[in-house]
Amino acid sequence: MSFPLEGAIAVTALDLARLQFGITTVYHFFFVPITIGLAVLIAILETIYVRTGREEYKRLAQFWGRLFLINFAVGVVTGILQEFQFGMNWAGYSRFVGDIFGAPLAIEALLAFFLESTFIGIWQFGWEQVSKRVHLFSIWMVALGTTLSAFWILTANSFMQEPVGYALQGGKAVMTDFLALVKNPQLWVEFPHTIFAAYLSGAMFMLGISAYQILRGRDVELFKKSFRVAAITAFVASVGVIGVGHLQADHLATSQPLKYAAAEAIWKTTPDPAPLSLIGVVHEDRHTVSPDISIPYLLSLMTYYRPSGAVTGLDELQAQYAAKYGPGDYVPPVAPTYYSFRVMVFAGVAMLALAAYATWLLRGGRFATRRRFLKVLVWAIALPYLANTAGWIMTEVGRQPWVVYGLLSTARAVSPTVTPAEVWTSLGSFTLIYTALAAAAVYLFKRAIDLGAAPMAQRAAVPGEVASYVDVAM
């Protein structure tokens, strides 16, 4: 099925379904890491409040809680739309993995999502209705719920990356060992990497907005405290992201060697030792990277933990996969995989550097006087969004042409009866909905940030101001 466009370009339903799922997933993933990271940071702030009785930490928990709730609400809406696409555009995929996907997704919805949703209600509306310790318990349950939600979603995704615990029956995958899904080696490098990235995302978000409030002279002493918590968290999380990310790359070299080679744009098996390409221009038609800035020995050292060893190239791997799976092109899109990997890594290193410097400046409170650095931190709020998006693109695009690695191709996963016109319609509808959601989210974020962390009574007394998140949202 194809749809003719101007210039004699034919766009198939598969192309459009992939585009729609990619766009909506990237948009949804803007909100997920921030939700996970902020939940833990708010829990830390409220823990300090309960342990010390210092009222300013309660005000901070309430301020960041308003931003968390906005983020959570938009994330939930966009996540629901994701699931509709499984039936609309990806019926072949749903039929093939439904028996396996159903279990982790059901646990995520019935356990993790209900856990966080229930305790969000207690936390938001229970400030004066329950004891301090019960209220603190509720926000830690929210943090646990968001983490468990990520775990079960990644359990399902890890099966797509590295299928385990299944048998093929009647042309579909049937679960034979639930524990194998939970023990999937892909999960145990993907999950910690994602969680550390979420903590880093939340911390950079908090760091940037705290810097913004300090620059504007709004509750400076108050936001110095959230700046400190965020700076330390960002530094620890950035180290964790890079460390676990390296372990994930190690696993990738054996579990998905084509993705590993595509991430380095290696077509011909490298010489021994293999250099690491820092940055270059990918020419897929010529199978080259030119110009290329590379570091000798480093790829071998990172892959084998010794300054020797070749890395198998895409051409040789393609021949191996064709012999194993039959005729076809098994090489993923190299340029997107190569560039997205570098965007992720460079953004991660930049966040490590900023977090390390911010932590160093905590001594004596010197950060509050470094206005140029504070301005950089405001702009650096974009870094986790770039890194998370690039990491997702590298992970999913680099897996092509498979939707379930080695079992189900993306071409076979698309709904057989869906037409390009139908996907265009849903894509246009989702674009309008998501644009409206983006505008609402930006407005509510700006409104909540401008209100600051003044106590409720003070904000209610100011003409034109609102007294709670509920008023803001309405």
Task: Give an overview of the whole structure.
The chain is mainly α. Mean pLDDT is 87; it is low at 1-9 and 460-474. It is globular and about 65 Å long. It has helices at residues 13-29, 32-52, 55-88, 91-125, 132-161, 178-182, 187-215, 220-255, 257-263, 298-304, 314-325, 334-361, 371-379, 382-397, 410-413, 420-451, 456-461, 469-473; strands at 2-5, 9-12, 166-169, 172-175, 276-283, 288-295, 402-404, 408-409. A two-stranded antiparallel sheet has the order 1-2. A two-stranded antiparallel sheet has the order 3-4. The protein has one domain (14-256, 336-473). A hairpin with a 2-residue loop joins strand 3 and strand 4. It contains 18 helices and 8 strands.
Summarize the structure.
The protein is mainly alpha-helical. The protein has helices at residues 13-29, 32-52, 55-88, 91-125, 132-161, 178-182, 187-215, 220-255, 257-263, 298-304, 314-325, 334-361, 371-379, 382-397, 410-413, 420-451, 456-461, 469-473, and strands spanning 2-5, 9-12, 166-169, 172-175, 276-283, 288-295, 402-404, 408-409. It has one domain (14-256, 336-473).
